[in-house]
Amino acid sequence: MAKIVTAAHAKAHLSALASAAAYGDERIIIERHGKPLAALVSVSDLERLESGEVAASRPQGALALVGAWREVNDEDMDSLVERIYTERGKDTGRSVQFI
Questions:
Q1: Residues 48 and 67 in one domain
Q2: Looking at the chain, which terminus has fewer C-beta neighbours within 10 angstroms, N or C?
C-alpha cells in the first residue's frame, strides 16, 4: 500500500521520502487538495514499470489461489467438493431476531 502525503509535506520532507522510496521500497503518492499529483518510487520500480515487467514473479493474494488448484488431483477435488456440500447440508442456519 502506498503512503499518501500532501505536496507541502513532500516539499518539507523530500530527502526522507526519497530515502524511504529508494532504500525502504516504499511508494509515496503526493496529493494536492486531496487529488493525486505524482508518485515517488524507487529507481528499480521505475525501471520495472518502463520495461513492462510485472511487479511480482508470483501472483499474490486472491490471485495466488487461481493457480493453486492445479496441484490438486481430480479425486481429491471431488472429495473436497462432496465434503463441502455435505457440511452445507447440515447447516440449519442461525436464528435472527428482529427488533
A1: no
A2: C
